[in-house]
Design goal:
- With 427 residues, the chain is α/β, with parallel strands linked by helices.
- It has two domains: 182 residues, 3-Layer(aba) Sandwich (D-Maltodextrin-Binding Protein, domain 2); 195 residues, Periplasmic binding protein-like II (D-Maltodextrin-Binding Protein, domain 2, 3-Layer(aba) Sandwich).
- It is 44% helix and 13% strand.
- Helix 2 links the parallel strand 1 and strand 2.
- The longest helix is centred in the first third of the chain and has 22 residues.
Length: 427
């Protein structure tokens, strides 16, 4: 009887503690880069409201980053010990930079067998990109895309340059690209396009353009070295320099991709080298009347492009607080995996789901045209962005472009770029 009484007392003492734990509020912080509408407060507030309808005790504070100052803000927070709980970006930051530096939590418990199968059915490259070389998952992905370029269909039609592209497949050869530039120039559509190199913004466009012209590889397969000093890499960069000298293409050392996109949208340029499904939506309102957007893969010597991809998701900084870490994981599970919220979260990005089970999230919506960009997904190439030294490489890339377009010897300047980039690997 005494044992039974003692047990009852113990149980009575545990109930208030359990109720209190359930009522405890946890506040976490999300920092997000401008990934589609994830950079817009109204959209993110709606997502958080949906989350709080299911988890009212987890408060999510948000800070919005940009690609000009965001990395510096994160670096400052790391040094000061004030990092957010969650950050939304891609593997090149979450895995290769902050994860490799030991600042992020292992998210392997989010990668269930079901998640691995569902995401892997879309792309094994996504699964591989979200983990370190040691096999630690530092990112849980939400969405992905393939970057492409874009042409003004109206300009090409008037210049009789449509003959140089495969209109059905949205592909073209390097020879077709050259012929199209000449046709556009002859018809008075000048400038045709601009190789921008005023900074790293949108460098995925210039990388893909230079790589694809002669099917070069940006890194080795093991992601342990940068390789654009190969014969095909040098050949592609030399061609761009020669086309600019010929006057059928331009370069501008003072602008970045955002400026180039604006020039395309206002009909100054007949093509742009930094485009994707999200850009098509976000720039719709700024299109001039005579611009007909027609997305294209980058030109390649064999007509089969290898496109650079984008993968975006979430990582958790190791702040030493188990309660906040668990709350952060709860948020990520809800945003990425919930059958109702998951597709909405991807829709906000303007990109495509990493989960095959989500299917076509754009059908019958105001973003229905985004589905057209799915044609490029089979051309997704190696996700080389996870190569170590990535941040240094990005700076070295646009500096190298400035030097070669200013008259520097292509092989010599690319050699400097390769040496400096490879020297940063492992640092």
């Amino acid at each position: 009887m005494k044992k039974l009484l003692a047990l009852l007392i113990a149980l009575m003492m545990m109930v208030p503690a359990a109720v209190g734990l359930a009522d405890d509020e946890v506040a976490i912080t999300l920092w997000t880069y401008p990934i589609g509408a994830w950079g817009q407060e109204a959209t993110v507030n709606e997502i958080i409201a949906n989350f709080n309808a299911a988890y009212p005790n987890i408060k999510v504070n948000v800070q919005y980053l940009d690609y000009t100052n965001g990395d510096a803000q994160v670096s400052t927070a790391i040094e000061a010990g004030t990092t957010p709980d969650i950050v939304m970006e891609g593997p090149e930051r979450l895995v290769t930079t902050w994860g490799a530096a030991g600042k992020m939590l292992d998210l392997s418990d989010l990668w269930t067998e079901e998640a691995l199968a569902d995401i892997g059915a879309t792309s094994e490259a996504v699964v591989a990109a979200c983990k370190s070389t040691e096999g630690i998952y530092y990112e849980y992905p939400l969405c992905m895309t393939t970057h492409c370029m874009v042409i003004n269909y109206n300009d090409f039609e008037k210049a009789d340059a449509l003959q140089y592209i495969d209109v059905e497949k949205h592909t073209w050869t390097t020879e077709g690209f050259i012929n199209a530039l000449k046709a556009l120039t002859a018809a008075g559509f000048v400038p045709t396009g601009t190789v921008y190199c005023g900074g790293q913004g949108g460098d995925q466009g210039t990388r893909a353009l230079a790589m694809n012209l002669y099917s070069a590889s940006f890194t080795n397969p093991e992601h342990t070295g940068y390789t654009m000093d190969s014969d095909n890499g040098l050949k592609g960069l030399q061609l761009l320099v020669d086309l600019c000298k010929e006057g059928v293409l331009e370069y501008d050392p003072g602008i970045v991709a955002g400026d180039e996109i604006a020039l395309f949208c206002n009909s100054t340029l007949s093509m742009g080298f930094c485009w994707n499904a999200s850009a098509a939506v976000s720039n719709q309102a700024s299109l001039a009347e005579d611009v007909k957007v027609f997305p294209m893969a980058f030109p390649s010597d064999d007509g089969i492009p290898e496109l650079c991809g984008g993968i975006w998701g979430f990582g958790i900084f190791d702040n030493g607080d188990a309660a906040r870490a668990e709350a952060a994981k709860t948020f990520i599970r809800f945003v990425c995996d919930d059958a109702v919220q998951g597709p909405k979260s991807v829709y906000a990005s303007g990109f495509f789901p990493v989960r095959a089970s989500f299917g076509d999230i754009y059908a019958g919506t105001e973003k229905a045209a985004n589905a057209d960009y799915a044609i490029f997904m089979p051309y997704l190439g190696d996700y080389y962005n996870v190569t170590s030294g990535w941040a240094v490489q990005r700076t070295e890339w646009w500096n190298m472009l400035q030097r070669i377009f200013a008259g520097g010897d292509v092989a010599a300047e690319v050699g400097v770029y390769i040496d400096n980039s490879n020297a940063a690997i492992g640092q």
